[in-house]
Amino acid sequence: MENIENTKELKPVLQLKNVSVSYNPGTFAVKKVSTDIYPNTITAIMGPSGCGKSTLLRAINRMHDLYSNIKTTGEIILKGKDILTMDSMEVRRLAGMVFQQPNPFPTMSIYENVLAGYKLNGIRLSKKEKDEIVEQSLKSVALWDEVKDVMSKRGSFLSGGQQQRLCIARALALKPEVLLMDEPTSALDPISTNKIEELLLGLKQNFTIIVVTHNMSQAARVSDNSMFMYLGELIEHGNTTQMFTKPKNKRTEEYLTGVFG
């Protein structure tokens, strides 16, 4: 596991500076969160339901732009640029998102699903480029051998675990700087969950990953660093092993020991 204290000499890939998200004036789901995320690490965001963890993840992906009553303030610096001032489509290319429920586009084939981001961004590719991206992306999620002979079938043809890996491949096809995952295994069976967890450990060699999870055991298994959120505030962020064995904040300790959750 990567120790967050030993990454200070590295340049953060993502910086959150006083990030707040309000649904209505004066009603905050996220309150002035500030922290750094370092490259080639897995960061787990934990906390009880309604603590703001998914809201924070969606703010990084600019998903709140779709709702006029949601306002995000502060700075979210990705590779030196504040994403709140960037084109939202460009942000979603740089910060890929994978959701709780597998959501391959139902009318698209497996092949077309992998390339969907390029189509949405209006990026034209040659047939050779498309083939290479599809093969590389599916291999990166250990799905290529399972689907290479049925590429023209719809993504919904696949099992739940395969669909989720297809959605991860779709996000990775655009070569994002950060991969955001909102409880990516909560709808999956234990075998599929194990495959996704193994996949994440391999992907961090090339990507920076942030995972929202309600599963503390999963956070302990896969993450290098963890963030604990409570009532919209970031209570603690540090090395996962250290946080689980010797949390610095009493509320973190109470959450991890089951006093509340």
UniProtKB/TrEMBL annotation:
Domain ABC transporter: start-end pairs: 14-256
Keyword Hydrolase among UniProt keywords: yes
InterPro entries registered for this protein in UniProt: AAA+_ATPase (IPR003593), ABC_transporter-like_ATP-bd (IPR003439), ABC_transporter-like_CS (IPR017871), P-loop_NTPase (IPR027417), PstB-like (IPR005670)
Cellular component, GO annotation: membrane
Top class in the EC scheme: hydrolase
Protein name: Phosphate import ATP-binding protein PstB
Domain of life according to the entry: Bacteria
Single biological process term from Gene Ontology: phosphate ion transmembrane transport
EC number: 3.6.3.27
Species assigned in the record: Fermentimonas caenicola
UniProt keywords, alphabetically: ATP-binding, Hydrolase, Nucleotide-binding, Phosphate transport, Transport
GO terms for MF: ATP binding; ATP hydrolysis activity; phosphate transmembrane transporter activity
Ranges in a coiled coil: none
UniProt gene name: pstB
Pfam families: ABC_tran
Gene3D superfamilies: P-loop containing nucleotide triphosphate hydrolases (3.40.50.300)
